[in-house]
Write a structure and sequence with these properties.
The protein has 348 residues and is of the alpha+beta class. Helices cover 42% and strands 12% of the residues. The protein has 14 helices and nine strands. The protein is globular, with a radius of gyration of 24 Å. Strand 7 and strand 8 form a beta hairpin. The strands form three sheets. Strands 1, 5, 6, 7 and 8 form a five-stranded mixed sheet that branches. A two-stranded antiparallel ribbon has the order 2-9. Helix 1 crosses helix 11, helix 2 crosses helix 3 and helix 2 runs antiparallel to helix 8.
Length: 348
């Protein structure tokens, strides 16, 4: 059997029963593919069901508020995916009358849809001969063919896409693309591949050369940036506080957070107090309390956020304050959501 035939045969016997494999509806496939970018299946599946419950159709998603979309997305991270999802739903609803385009080129033009997602939708929904290349596929191809070109280099991206097209099965793209991704996720796993019982082990270049653990090759990541956040949680006598929406570019765009004091290092009481917004500043230092004794370190792909939460009690009535009981109604980063839960359990 050829490479693609072996993949198809393996897939027919080993594929997982995943909810999006019971449909060729472009809306559901698109939703699952966007959610599973940089997200494990086990983590993404509940979100997939939740979105379909709240937004059964792409028109329902298009008509929703951004705040509701972000709230339902809370915890998945990489929030630009949710904003792009919402924007694309509007495009599909308005420009395409609720019907997804059925060709790769138009799919690729959609906001937040790259080569991989366009290929996945085109092949799974319309059985078009467009090969997918995701992390799992890179790993399978790099190991099987013994390719050490970095997969995140310009040369590597082009080389692996060309190779993926050469070895695909154009007669059954729907199953082949899902099969090779599944093969990489289960059989040719990142850390402990099952080489002994692999249907490709008799012709795998890296196995014969004892280089499985060296492939695929990836260029080193961008240096991690350390940031130091001090969140100010003002509380008035009516148990109201403040949330601000993050604006502009950068992390957590359009999500909500408490007033922020960012420093160049871990802040102490004197430093933080001197920078508290004037409307929340207090005369007595003992009215400012550090909530977390240990600094919380929230790790993003290229940033580590070192975080302290400061409780500031104020007798001044907070204009347009948010009742603490309503904090969980707002879309916030996981870092803030975890604090809100701990804070409410400790204080109320």
């Amino acid at each position: 059997m050829s490479f693609s035939q072996k993949i198809l045969h393996w897939y027919s016997e080993n594929k997982r029963d995943l909810p999006w494999r019971h449909t060729t509806d472009p809306y559901k496939i698109w939703l699952s593919e966007i959610m599973l970018q940089q997200t494990r299946v086990a983590q993404g599946t509940p979100y997939y069901f939740s979105f379909l419950e709240h937004f059964p159709t792409v028109e329902d998603l298009a008509n929703a508020s951004e705040e509701k979309v972000l709230k339902l997305w809370q915890g998945l991270g990489y929030y630009s995916r949710a904003r792009n999802l919402h924007a694309t739903a509007k495009i599909i609803s308005e420009k395409y009358k609720g019907e997804f385009p059925s060709n790769y080129k138009e799919l690729l033009a959609l906001k937040g849809v790259g080569d991989y997602t366009a290929s996945a939708i085109a092949s799974i929904c319309f059985n078009l001969p467009e090969p997918v290349v995701d992390g799992n596929v890179y790993r399978v191809l790099a190991r099987y063919f013994g390719i050490d070109t970095p997969i995140n280099s310009t040369e590597g991206i082009a080389q692996f896409k060309t190779l993926a097209r050469e070895v695909m099965d154009p007669t059954n793209m729907r199953d082949y693309n899902q099969g090779i991704m599944e093969f990489g996720a289960i059989q040719c796993a990142p850390q402990k591949p099952y080489c002994l019982h692999c249907p490709l082990n008799d012709s795998c270049a890296s196995l014969s050369a004892n280089k499985i653990h060296l492939l695929p090759v990836k260029l080193k990541k961008t240096k991690v940036r350390n940031r130091y956040f001090n969140y100010i949680i003002p509380i008035d006598d009516h148990k109201r506080t403040v949330l601000n929406q993050r604006k502009g570019k950068g992390i957590w765009q359009h999500l909500y957070e408490f007033p922020l004091v960012e420093l160049e290092h871990i802040g102490n009481l004197k430093e933080v107090r001197s920078k508290i917004p004037e409307e929340f500043a207090m005369a007595a230092i003992d009215q400012i309390q550090l909530f977390n004794e240990d600094v919380v370190i929230h790790k993003l792909s290229h940033q580590h956020i070192h975080t302290q939460f400061w409780i500031v009690n104020t007798t001044n009535q907070i204009a347009k304050g948010i009742p603490i009981s309503k904090l969980e109604d707002y879309p916030v980063p996981v870092l803030i959501a975890d604090f809100i839960k701990a804070f409410k359990n400790s204080y109320f």
